[in-house]
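thought: fold this chain, then report.
action: predict
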Amino acid sequence: MATLTRLQFVVLLIAAIGLMAPVSACYKASHQNTSILQASHRTPEFVLRDKYRHPLETLSFFGVEPGMTVVEIWPGKGWYTEILAPYVGNGSFYAAHFPTGIGVDFYDSNSALFVEKLAAYPEVYHRVNMAVFDPKRNQLTVPDGSADRVLTFRNVHNWLRSESEETAFALFFKALKPGGILGVVEHRAPDGMDWEAMKTSGYMTEQYVVALAEKAGFVFEAKSEINSNPKDTKNHPKGVWTLPPTLRLQELDRDKYLAIGESDRMTLKFRKPAQQ
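observation:
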């Protein structure tokens, strides 16, 4: 084997360092995100659901990155907020929660619990901006054209039940920057399920959700099977709420539904066109 000159050795060393640097950076980012899942501020029962919700893979598919302006729609008790707030880092994070003071106890109680969660870990949630999302009143209190990402997890069926789903998607479109991404995770119905069955079961067809987004002006960009569950037959006595985590039948056939796991879900990515 020929002996390398000093110059050849230095050139090879620089090239090797150049190849290693991006790998090291990727590992650092991946390690940091994985540590979020293991952080002490996370609710233990929420952690148990990671295997069904695949949060890091889902956020990666939606292209969420530190420093972005991200809006989470109806965060509920904050399952995804526990991950998103530290994930976004020094970006702007809006938690667009239920409207309060309108006579809906569920909204009031869940919003109060969410605020308590934020107060319990100020070092994690100090950058969270509280906002309101109320499609029945055409309201999303986020600056127009400000968001890089608008994300909603298992919510579209709720707006279907209140017949405000078209308004919801129009508000998302308005909040996003040109070129911004709308990420949707939703319980997936079999193709062809009619509107009434979707309304009562909590499952929605991909075709219906895609049509809603396109009507609002979005372009359908991609779908993923990250959150699919082929064990879900989607014909349960209490709709999607038969399955965990709700288990509406309580002890009746509990082991059967635990074995199925959480619902089969679509994971869809839409883009607001860069030019209107």
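thought: worth noting. The first strand starts at residue 69 and ends at 73.
final: tokens above.
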